[in-house]
Amino acid sequence: MRAAVARTGTTSARLHERIEIGGGGREYALTVTGGFDFGRDRGSLAVDFPGGGISHLDEVFADGKVYVRGASGPDAGTWGVMPRDKAVAHYALRAPVNDPEHVLRQISAMRRVSREGEETVHGVRAAHYRGTLDHKTLTLRMAPDVRSKLDQGRDLLGDDFPVFADAWVDGRGRLVQTRMTLNLAGTQVKVTMGLSGLGTPVSVKTPRPGDTVPAGSMSGVLSG
After folding, report:
1. What range defines the domain where residue 210 resides?
2. Which intervals of the chain are annotated as region Disordered (predicted)?
């Protein structure tokens, strides 16, 4: 399974990620779609949250930076930009600015991995692996204030949070789907990322410098 993560990290793919959050009788879902070249660390993503205060974000990853555009009105053409490695996550099981390589890093750290048989995923026959994520992996690149709250929760629980991870690997040893799930105190977070068109070239258009402004941080439901 870890070899499959490494192999996927050298190629490109079309992505469709669904982030489902439920609790207190309410549920909502976000989607992240686009293309990403893992081998070249470049990609373009669209984030959508129907009914949200801001319902759409565009994201571009290139040259060690991440560009985000989601404003309306006179600033609609302006992109915030910051070093990609400075972005942090603000919610459990959310990748910093929806970075799919972060998901691969978490999946590669699965523990207690077992093979659950074979299934057809996105029209491809794939081996299904299941495991768990430890606290260090759950809080990877997480904002300090959020990590502190999760640390306190773990101390009260007396053990790691129950975080389960699944990975589906095709016959060529590449990931075709991942899933991470957290159930705790009536709240569920489930993040499913599908990868298709593996090896298909990905075109990335970097915003012009004149259309960008430096961003010290990026937060909010859409950006993770």
Report:
1. 2-214
2. 200-224
